[in-house]
């Protein structure tokens, strides 16, 4: 890092802090202003904030690890989004905006009634805050520590008040403090405004590194030639589809099927819950919520990911003997980029880090204040009181996340553990919007069975060996994540459906009130006039199918063109153009857009 590099980094940090200060008044009036921006976000700002949140500093680290170990077919761990991510904008984004709640946990008491609903809201808020959010923040901080060690040439320790402190930990603490300052001052307004800036910087930085990495290998033809003889991926590093056997490189068909057909909906944000729901709830209206979802899914899959993939493929050739595959990406930054660009890339990583941390700090604070403190402890305080407590909650969550980060060893393993922990909840999150029979006990059963099965399977390995063998995974040396996920989802689904059908009945009045408010397509409000009309479901399903086709064809088409397969690339691009044009015309016509 030369002086000019540090100047670039310092300018970036001062800039994002200044944005937070400037927007502090907009987020200070009420809890709605602090957590959902007064419900005034335009689609492009809400959608880009979703993009920035998923563009964490740790993401290229575990993407690189996956591709170094399995080649491009390993990316099906992420490509599950191609089928199910487009479902969220068309089937759920508008419903979240109509609900008008502050958090996804608050929706629980809008959907269900009685003590079970109140208990579920409290339990879910606590679990999401102190398990899911802290785990996410923890691995993001761990990723930043790894990046610091590789990119910045600093002494390993410094003396602070007479105590030896790890330099990289001290710098990460300083970065978290920057996020705490602007997030605590301006709430979601500061988060989304800085996210917009941070996403652009992070994307530009990742493109520069991808270009430098491919150039260092000798160009795309040289990269493809070198990968064809790479033993670790069986010469299949640039193949998108899975291999038909265990020893042919890439992932097997069994893992592919789990990723493509199950992973995309078997998670705790299956219906857009979490940070996506927060952006939909903060949008100006339901049309802006819909467009924010379309924008984020499109840019994420077609544009954002490919620089990571190219850099990861290049790293296989550049660092063939590297043992910690998560360190390949920061190693390339340190080795390949010149003065100036290195500072830009460090700023890009800081941007990616902050854009994720600020969102999860704000979201965690919303659960603590809106769903625990204001709901169950102090119900009638002033808005100023709740905003002040929200700022304290942001700082407290930052400290807790730092402690969690110290206990984690691998970013990818933490990512997979979180995926397993709540994978059984996905089914009930989807059903609660469209099946009136679902109750609070259904969600409780799904949550408890998912967590319990995950912990038991991880601790004992029960059923993992036979399931892995069924999927064609080597139980001794293969990645057992798909096998564990399938077991957890199957057990939880059986428990959830049994409780839904055999457990307590729904409150008809509460269900009718909920469906009258959110108006999901294809669902008639229970007790409504038999002659009343409801929006049919099939147009939303068609939009989802077209969106999946468009995103998939465009993403694979871009990949084929970048990797030097023009015939396949242009054919996929033509299919993307056809499906995208049809979808665009339908969205404009159906939702009154211009």
Q: Quick gist of this model?
A:
By secondary structure, the chain is mainly alpha-helical.
Beta-sheet strand percentage?
A: under 5%
Helix fraction? over 70%
Q: Summarize model confidence as the mean pLDDT.
A: 88
The helix-strand sequence is HHHHHHHHHEEHHHHHHHHHHHHHHHHH
Give the CA-based shape. globular
**CATH domain class of the largest domain:** Mainly Alpha
What is the second-level CATH architecture of the largest domain?
Answer: Up-down Bundle
Secondary structural class: mainly alpha
Radius of gyration: 24 Å
Q: Reading side by side through the largest sheet, how are the strands ordered?
A: 1-2
CATH fold category name of the largest domain: Sodium/glucose cotransporter
The CATH homologous superfamily name of the largest domain equals Sodium/glucose cotransporter
Number of helices: 26
What is the terminal separation in angstroms?
48 Å
Poorly predicted segments:
none
Question: In this structure, how is the largest beta sheet organized?
Answer: 2 strands, antiparallel
- Using DSSP, what is the number of strands? 2
Topology of helices and strands:
Layout: H1 3-22, H2 31-36, H3 43-54, H4 59-70, H5 76-79, H6 81-84, H7 87-99, H8 107-111, H9 114-151, E1 157-160, E2 163-166, H10 167-217, H11 220-228, H12 253-263, H13 275-282, H14 286-304, H15 306-318, H16 328-336, H17 341-377, H18 383-405, H19 411-421, H20 426-434, H21 440-460, H22 464-471, H23 481-502, H24 508-518, H25 538-562, H26 566-591
Antiparallel strand pairs: 1-2
């Amino acid at each position: 890092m030369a002086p000019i590099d540090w100047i670039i980094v310092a300018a970036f940090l001062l800039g994002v802090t200044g944005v937070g200060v400037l927007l502090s008044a907009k987020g200070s009036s009420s809890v709605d202003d602090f957590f959902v921006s007064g419900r005034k976000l335009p689609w492009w700002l809400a959608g880009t904030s979703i993009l920035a949140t998923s563009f964490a500093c740790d993401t290229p680290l575990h993407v690189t690890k996956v591709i170094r170990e399995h080649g491009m077919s390993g990316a099906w761990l992420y490509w599950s989004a191609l089928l199910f991510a487009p479902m969220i904008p068309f089937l759920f984004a508008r419903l979240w905006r109509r609900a008008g709640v502050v958090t996804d946990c608050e929706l629980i008491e809008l959907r269900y009634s009685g003590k079970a609903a109140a208990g579920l809201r409290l339990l879910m808020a606590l679990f999401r805050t102190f398990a899911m959010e802290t785990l996410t923040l923890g691995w993001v901080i761990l990723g930043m520590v790894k990046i610091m060690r590789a990119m910045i040439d600093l002494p390993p320790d410094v003396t602070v008040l007479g105590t030896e402190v790890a330099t990289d930990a001290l710098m990460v603490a300083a970065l978290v403090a920057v996020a705490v300052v602007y997030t605590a001052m301006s709430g979601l307004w500061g988060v989304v405004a800085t996210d917009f800036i941070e996403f652009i910087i992070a994307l530009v930085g990742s493109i520069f590194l991808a270009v430098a990495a491919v150039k260092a290998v000798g160009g795309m033809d040289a990269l493809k030639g070198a990968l064809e003889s790479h033993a670790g991926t069986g010469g299949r590093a640039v193949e998108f589809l899975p291999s038909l056997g265990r020893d042919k490189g890439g992932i097997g068909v069994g893992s592919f099927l789990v990723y493509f057909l199950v992973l995309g909906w078997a998670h705790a944000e299956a219906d857009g819950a979490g940070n996506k729901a927060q952006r939909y709830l903060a949008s100006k209206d339901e049309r802006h919520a819909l467009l924010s979802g379309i924008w984020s899914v499109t840019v994420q899959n077609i544009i954002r990911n490919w620089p990571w993939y190219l850099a990861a493929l290049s790293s296989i050739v550049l660092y063939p003997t590297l043992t910690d595959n998560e360190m390949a990406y920061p190693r390339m930054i340190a080795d390949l980029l010149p003065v100036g660009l290195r500072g830009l890339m460090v700023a890009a990583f800081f941007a990616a880090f902050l854009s994720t941390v600020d969102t999860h700090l704000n979201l965690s604070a919303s659960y603590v204040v809106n769903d625990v403190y204001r709901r169950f402890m102090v119900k009638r305080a002033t808005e100023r009181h709740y905003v002040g407590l929200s700022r304290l909650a942001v700082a407290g969550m930052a400290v807790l996340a730092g402690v969690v980060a110290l206990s984690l060893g691998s970013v990818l393993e933490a990512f997979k553990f979180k995926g397993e922990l709540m994978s059984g909840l996905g089914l009930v999150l989807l059903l609660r919007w469209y099946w009136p029979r679902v109750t609070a006990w259904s969600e409780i059963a799904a949550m408890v069975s998912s967590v319990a099965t995950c912990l038991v399977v991880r601790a004992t390995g029960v059923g993992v060996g036979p399931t892995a063998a069924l999927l064609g995974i080597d139980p001794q040396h293969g990645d057992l994540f798909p096998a564990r996920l399938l077991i957890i989802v199957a057990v939880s689904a059986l428990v959830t459906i049994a409780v839904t059908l055999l457990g307590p009945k729904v409150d008809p009045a509460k269900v009718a009130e909920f469906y009258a408010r959110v108006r999901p397509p294809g669902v008639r409000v229970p007790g409504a006039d038999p002659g009343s009309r409801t929006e049919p479901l099939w147009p939303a399903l068609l939009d989802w199918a077209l969106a999946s086709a468009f995103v998939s064809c465009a993403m694979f088409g871009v990949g084929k063109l970048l990797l030097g397969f023009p015939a396949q690339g242009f054919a996929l691009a033509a299919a993307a153009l056809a499906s995208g044009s049809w979808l665009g015309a339908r969205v404009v016509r159906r939702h009154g857009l211009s």
